[in-house]
Amino acid sequence: MNFNEDPFIRSLTEDPELFDGEKELEMLEEKIREKLVERFGDNIYSDQRLNFLSQSVGQMILKAREAAENAIQYRNFKVSCSVLTVRDRVPKIFKGNNLKLNQEGAKICAEQAALISAIKNGKTSDIVGIFVAGEAQIDSNSGLYSPTLHPCANCRELISTMLKAGGNELKDVILVTIGLKSDEFELMTWEELLQKHEKK
Ligand SMILES: [Zn+2]
User: Fold this and answer.
1) Domains contained in the chain, number
2) What DSSP letter does each residue of 17-61 carry, written as one string?
């Protein structure tokens, strides 16, 4: 008898949840790549930064979601982030998660943790892409309800300042916001993020 054909043995050796997860990840990766092509056309091949970003999409999703496992948050609102840097044609991915112990307490956002880790290991201008994973909620500062979770007002200001001070153009840094489990995503430049949250 072939063990692989036995439904009981198969149920032990296959993890259907993992399989679905992998398939879902591949589909999301594909959709984000298509979006990059739609937005930047052939530049994703000729522009070194975009080329590395396009090749790293799968890893960026994986690392961002992985980081969520380490999130410490009093109301289980997990946010995680991965940052892609490219220096001397070597891509590196850094990750971070949020930390907030109680409602009144200080917090560290996932984006800040990941960005600091990236800058510690290189230069701000090496930063090519930022992926943020979390569940969507209304922005308490701008009031915008986006399909996916955007960096908070504090992160928008802090990271914009960091990027500019480090000689990185806000229009050259790509932000991809994704669901922690869903295949919802948005792709924009850091500059466009600021525009979306501008108060009318
Ligand atoms: Zn934040």
Assistant:
1) 1
2) HHHHHHHHHHHHHHHHHHHHHHHHTTHHHHSHHHHHHHHHHHHHH
